[in-house]
Amino acid sequence: MTLLLKNVTYTFPKESKPIISDLNLKVEKGEFVSLIGKSGTGKSTILKLITGLLKQAHGEITINGQPISLGDVGYMPQKDLLLPWRTVMDNIMIGAEIQKDLQLTKEDARNWLKRIGLIDYEHALPNQLSGGMRQRVAFLRAMLTGKEVLLLDEPFGALDSITKKEMQAWLLSIWQELDKTIVFITHDLEEASYLSDRIVLLKQNSVEEIEVPLPRPRHADMLHSSELVGLRRELEKRI
Amino acid sequence: MKNFFKTYSLFIVFMVVVLIAMEYLVQSDIIPAFIVPAPTDVVIHIIDNWRPLIFEHLGATMLEFAIGFILAVVGGVCLAVCMFFSKTIEKMLYPAVLISQMIPIIALSPIFVLWFGYTIWSKVAVTILMSFFPIVVGAYDGFKSTDKDYIELLRSMGASKRQIFTKLNIQMALASFFSGLKIAIVYSLVGATIGEWLGASEGLGYYSRRMSGDLNADGVFAAIVILTIVGIILFALVAMVEKRTLRWKETE
């Protein structure tokens, strides 16, 4: 499974200058790639192009050589967007309701809720959950769409630092176990360095790719390692 | 119940003061009884005439109201759905829906009598005309108010337009729809009453007009009191259904 963006250009309607110009990006199966860059460099737009929500003016986006279409990837936007009238379980099951061929039973969903510590909240409404819980449910919803590629748009951006650390560890454990391919957006350079195999630095007119020199599996102690601190400083300079 | 009194205690006190003041002013001959009746006289009128008032006149009004309201809800929701899915239908019919509210009902009602005669349908037509607008606008604006981010999320999962409508738009429209429905149910009752003023042989509108012709203020006010109580009950019923349907909002 390879996600490939080839010479992708996108211009917003009524804009003359493209926000993404001639972008090339290759993400291999099981890779964790973070997109970083200042606001307005098109990070979220890239994810929307990969989901098929936006259509590029030029270039092609493929998964295993096949042009992408809506429903091909799991997508978690910046806001958790849990449907407020649906219980936690019903929110998780919405992917299976939409894609009839998706083999997801309530029992599977229940097992996952158990694993992420939310089994007692199966029948709770989103407004009865904390920020971290909501993000976990939103992540589970994206993951249980069964797609190999997961696009996560600043999923932990609004969380406090303690919850954020917990969520990072949790995400890494699930990613390693399920061998998903993740494209992750963050403004947090430490987060990008800690989680990713590779970091794609988006600038106004260029793209830089940086390999993360940390071994797998990652653990919280590495946050203070000289490699990670050095990488973060390097990113600060380059961004 | 405690909440009810907390919310409405001031209103209840106000109404009691107004009724006592009315009673005093009329009983002391400060205001003639044919202008404003004493509340006790209105109650006595209702008790003395409860059988024809409830079974004959309220029954007739409720039948006109029920047919008109149900047709307005069904038609209004169908039109809102059609306008939501078709820009052409929206451009063609939305202005007509708006204009229907600009026409004075009193001016239009004789036309209904011309078309439908003095049958129940002339009253039903007025009822529909009165209640159609808030239902259409409530439902249509509700459908359109769906957050774009939610739509994108479902689209990213491969949802069809129909799936987005059933799983998202309908739920998102409910709050606005119920606001329209609460207005419409009260308007429907008013519509049925106005329809009866213009030509009927039974109904609370007809009764109040007949009593007015006899300078019987007790009778006029008796019909008004019954209509008001029924209107409050109908409004409360819709509010109750709304609360049950939108229970999730209470957790917000």
Automatic annotation (TrEMBL), chain A:
<dbReference type="Pfam" id="PF00005">
    <property type="entry name" value="ABC_tran"/>
</dbReference>
<dbReference type="InterPro" id="IPR027417">
    <property type="entry name" value="P-loop_NTPase"/>
</dbReference>
<feature type="domain" description="ABC transporter">
    <location>
        <begin position="3"/>
        <end position="229"/>
    </location>
</feature>
<keyword id="KW-0067">ATP-binding</keyword>
<dbReference type="InterPro" id="IPR050166">
    <property type="entry name" value="ABC_transporter_ATP-bind"/>
</dbReference>
<keyword id="KW-0813">Transport</keyword>
<dbReference type="InterPro" id="IPR003593">
    <property type="entry name" value="AAA+_ATPase"/>
</dbReference>
<dbReference type="GO" id="GO:0005524">
    <property type="term" value="F:ATP binding"/>
</dbReference>
<dbReference type="InterPro" id="IPR017871">
    <property type="entry name" value="ABC_transporter-like_CS"/>
</dbReference>
<dbReference type="InterPro" id="IPR003439">
    <property type="entry name" value="ABC_transporter-like_ATP-bd"/>
</dbReference>
<dbReference type="GO" id="GO:0016887">
    <property type="term" value="F:ATP hydrolysis activity"/>
</dbReference>
<protein>
    <submittedName>
        <fullName>ABC transporter ATP-binding protein</fullName>
    </submittedName>
</protein>
<keyword id="KW-0547">Nucleotide-binding</keyword>
TrEMBL record, chain B:
<feature type="domain" description="ABC transmembrane type-1">
    <location>
        <begin position="58"/>
        <end position="238"/>
    </location>
</feature>
<protein>
    <submittedName>
        <fullName>ABC transporter permease</fullName>
    </submittedName>
</protein>
<dbReference type="InterPro" id="IPR000515">
    <property type="entry name" value="MetI-like"/>
</dbReference>
<keyword id="KW-1133">Transmembrane helix</keyword>
<feature type="transmembrane region" description="Helical">
    <location>
        <begin position="220"/>
        <end position="241"/>
    </location>
</feature>
<feature type="transmembrane region" description="Helical">
    <location>
        <begin position="164"/>
        <end position="190"/>
    </location>
</feature>
<keyword id="KW-0813">Transport</keyword>
<dbReference type="GO" id="GO:0005886">
    <property type="term" value="C:plasma membrane"/>
</dbReference>
<dbReference type="Pfam" id="PF00528">
    <property type="entry name" value="BPD_transp_1"/>
</dbReference>
<feature type="transmembrane region" description="Helical">
    <location>
        <begin position="124"/>
        <end position="143"/>
    </location>
</feature>
<feature type="transmembrane region" description="Helical">
    <location>
        <begin position="65"/>
        <end position="85"/>
    </location>
</feature>
<keyword id="KW-0472">Membrane</keyword>
<comment type="similarity">
    <text>Belongs to the binding-protein-dependent transport system permease family.</text>
</comment>
<keyword id="KW-1003">Cell membrane</keyword>
<keyword id="KW-0812">Transmembrane</keyword>
<dbReference type="GO" id="GO:0055085">
    <property type="term" value="P:transmembrane transport"/>
</dbReference>
<dbReference type="InterPro" id="IPR035906">
    <property type="entry name" value="MetI-like_sf"/>
</dbReference>
<feature type="transmembrane region" description="Helical">
    <location>
        <begin position="92"/>
        <end position="118"/>
    </location>
</feature>
